[in-house]
Amino acid sequence: MKRQTVLWPVLFALAVALIAADLADAQQVAIRNTTRGLMWNSFRDIGSMGRRNDSFYDGAVSLQYPGTRADIGDFIEYYGDPGWNSGGGVTRTHHYSFSVGEGVWMLVKDGNDYVVTSSGPRYYTEDLQASVYDPRTGSEKDLGIQDGKSTWWPTRTNLPDDMIEIHNYTYGKYIGQVVGRDNEAEEVLITRWRSNKSGLITTRKSRAWSYPDYMDFLILEFVFENGSAKSYTDVYFALVNNWAPTESAHDSQGSGNNWRGWADPNKDDGYRYTEASNYAGPAQYRGKKMLYMWDGDYPRTLFDDTGGALDRSVSLGANDWGQAANELLAPAYLGMAPLAWKPPFANDAGTYVAPKGDQPQSAHWWKITNLQVTDEPTNSRNTDAQMYAALTAPTPADPTDVDAYANALTFGPYDMAPGDKAKIVMVYVAGAGADFREQTWGAGYTGPKVNMGIAGNLNAWSLLGDRAEFKKGEDAMFNHLAKAQFAYNNGYDVPDAPPDVKQTQSSTPEGNFQVAWTNEADSAVNPDYAGAEANDIAGYRVYRAQRTNTGAPPREIGPWDLVDEAPVGKNGRSTTFSGNRYTFVDKESVAGFTYFYTVHSFAKGKTNWSAGTAKLSDLPQEQQDRIKGGLEGGFSSPESKANYLPLSPSVPSAAEFDQLATKVRVVPNPYKVDGQHNYPGDLRVRFVNLPRRSTISIYSVSGDLQARLEHNDPTSGEEIWRQQSRTYFGEVASGIYFFVVESHVPGSEGKKQSGTFAIIKR
Predict the structure, then answer these.
(1) Keywords for this entry (predicted)?
(2) For the chain, is the Cβ count within 10 Å smaller at the N or the C terminus?
(3) CA pair distance 353, 414, nearest whole angstrom
(4) Using CA of residue 582, residue 587, residue 592, residue 593, what is the dihedral sign?
(5) Which tens digits make up the pLDDT trace of 381-405?
(6) Do domains 503-640 and 655-760 have the same CATH topology?
(7) Would you kindly state where each structural domain of the chain is located, as residue ranges?
(8) Rounded distance between C-alpha atoms, residue 206 and residue 216, angstroms
């Protein structure tokens, strides 16, 4: 995902204030985002990850699960610029960020002096300096394609002045067809930075897959190099986190309980480390070296809000996004664990020093009181020597109560001569009880019912508010850890999922929604097989996001209904195949209402799989069953969706509309927030039967111009107004309004038509 866009003219004054207040925090740092798997995260070129634990919001996501748009203006290259505000347009999406931020600490003992370098989440030290990794000298030199969002591909002749983002995927092709090999992740993001005090250099490589069996985690490889002329003993590296499951759950607890404010109703998180002396989790997970957290039950209320379950009796104020009563807004467990920490390393013949003793050296937790007050070590009240001692102290017992906690895993000590390197491979992983439920199915669907797994049913499951089943997320998380360990051990050569399908959407002349795609994936070649068995695409499945029982519009992350299936080269129930094109027409769609769709290719079932020394029987049973039933493309990435902004079918243009021979109508009229005379969760007012080029002027009863809309669309006979005043200072008030439509179509140019409509608000 490319660098975020910042509106510099608007934020200039704020940037000046930040520079004056804190020089270190005022550095302009690039952000890139992993968006391929179900877990999304933001990365900066000075080492921090996710959000920043201060009042500055820079459009980042922070271990989002499931990943989705963070807010207005984020990920514009995928979503487009919607041009609406959070209060007056399309319902805001849920923010499933599980973390306030994460950072990497380097702890060096230099004789009698100590140097601690921090890249967050509480603060950045001034010695951090961003650098650019050169993939021409690494194993990535032959990877990647140029797609407008990536920054590295094999034919590039110069290094980007940015982080390295590598995309090993494209529409209609398996990964082996894209880059010539499949022992790599679909998305690789590489950052590098150094400490100007100690001379240590860090290179971090993040890997993500959209494959349904490998999308629930991020694998991060850290390489630490002594770039100084000094020899160091007793060097440690710590991964420090401020986790807070989740932003959506926190913001839905009532006004004033900001996510980073750490208000009391939100301080109800559980913490465990599998190697703690009093570890209270399932005994079979001892030895996994996993540190993890989850949203527990706040003890001072009668309502059980385990898993971020929503109490609708609490006033949500501006944070009401259509959440359902009891919906689990923090639906998963989140953890991190090492996959490897001593040589030799998979897919890496480099020379590395090993740490002394078993790893991690220690795990830590600290209580957080609020944004300013915390028990974790910080440079505002601790010396470098004190912070070094705190991060390298023995592992404490796990806390026995729920609260707000910062946490860390520390590795070391290492002895590092000039040029020496150390390596740690980590996984950040999530899991939800949805893994243990079967998929739901759309009304009228009669095709085969193949369970899609968590990507398809996580949101449907969250709406059930099942607190007991929420606790099964602990098992799901460890199951995903096992898959991450397998992926690493097997050199990232895993069973390949079928490719994404490039989809387009439009309206039919009847005002229904249609989704179309080409037959490019029909001939995709699976690199895990040879001969005819490699041409394994069996067909396509079409999904539509459900409307929930909250009255809100459907969500771009589901829940999804399977509404049609088309075999390769054949028609489906509502899909036609002609030439090289498939077209699904949703006869149930209605103009003015919003919809989300996703189309997935799926493969023929197999009775075998192998890669290196691994074979089908080495995989978990449920994964074996999916391979035998036929793998399906992922749900997690923006590329898998037909649309990621809410779209609705529209009235098509017509010759009689161009001549204003048909009455222009306003829908709904009256607009009234009662569930019957408004579109769910939307201020939308539609002007229909318009000339394809026309101007709509809207006046109050006193004759004041309230809004002017320019319609210029050769295919559409309607325009949407979300009640924004022409000054853009807010929405118009309740009242009677007049409109005048003037045609600019040759033959009727200058012709006008007028009418009235009413807006009634609560």
Answers:
(1) Signal
(2) C
(3) 7
(4) negative
(5) 999 999 999 999 999 999 999 999 9
(6) yes
(7) 87-135+195-494, 503-640, 655-760
(8) 13
